Amino acid sequence: MNVQKMKAIFLDRDGTINKEVNYLYKPSDFYFIPGSEEAIKIFHDLGFIVIVVTNQSGVARGYYTEDDIIVLHKYIEWELNKISTKGLEFDDKRAIEDEKNNGYYIDSYYYCPHHPKGIIEKYAINCDCRKPNTGMVDNAIDDFKGKGIYIDVSQSYIVGDKESDILTGKNAGFYKTVLVCSGHEVDKSNSEADMIFEDLFEFAQSLKSSLSKI
């Protein structure tokens, strides 16, 4: 199998792509942070794979299920797709095909349902996937390798609104770690992030500008 080397943007979900809601799982409570949809398109236009890695301890705590997470992620894709494919039904396959052509999509989603203090026994564990551990990143790299794509971590970024996201990037050996404020208070002075921006769109614009000079 021929392996294609690619770079990736790994994104936290809540507080990075969408507005922070405690234990979000209902599509009706989901709202994009302004500009995040366009940022995702910019990343694709620049040749990056876009991957979501999100801690979802609400499963372990009994607030919602893994199926609820999957439904929400499908809803996110539908909302992204609506930007340029209007008037199509939710399950219209053509919508998904069009979406891949316009850049408004997430390549893959990974979530950690665990928490050591959870009340659902099978999820109440110390795992290797909960950030700042690198299990979700490792799984993504392995999955894409199975598709013939080698994700070059040394040329990839991780973006999030919490220090656990930054530490995940450090632990995994990412090229750059990016902290976004997304409208809430962030301890910039004590962050280990390589770069700090107000939101995902500001980072996307900066990345586009820097790569255009190469």
Any overview of this molecule?
The structure is a single chain. The chain is an alpha/beta fold and 214 residues long. Helices cover 34% and strands 17% of the residues. The chain has 6 helices and 7 strands, in the order βαβααβαββαββα. The protein has helices spanning 36-45, 66-82, 93-102, 135-146, 163-172, 200-212; strands at 4-11, 48-55, 108-112, 149-151, 157-160, 176-180, 195-197. Strands 1, 2, 3, 4, 5, 6 and 7 form a 7-stranded parallel beta sheet that branches. β1 (4-11), α1 (36-45) and β2 form a beta-alpha-beta unit. The longest helix is centred in the middle third of the chain and has 17 residues, at 66-82. The radius of gyration is 17 Å and the shape is globular. It starts with a strand and ends with a helix. The model has no long low-confidence stretch (mean pLDDT 92).
Return residue spans where pLDDT drops below 50 for at least 5 consecutive residues.
none
Please tally the helical runs, counting DSSP H or I stretches of 4 or more residues.
6
Strand content: 15-25%
Distance between the termini: 31 Å
Shape descriptor reads globular
Q: Main beta sheet, described? A: 7 strands, parallel
Number of strands: 7
Average pLDDT for all residues: 92
Order of helices and strands: EHEHHEHEEHEEH
Structural class: alpha/beta
Fraction of helical residues: 25-40%
Radius of gyration: 17 Å
Assembly type of the chains comes to: single chain
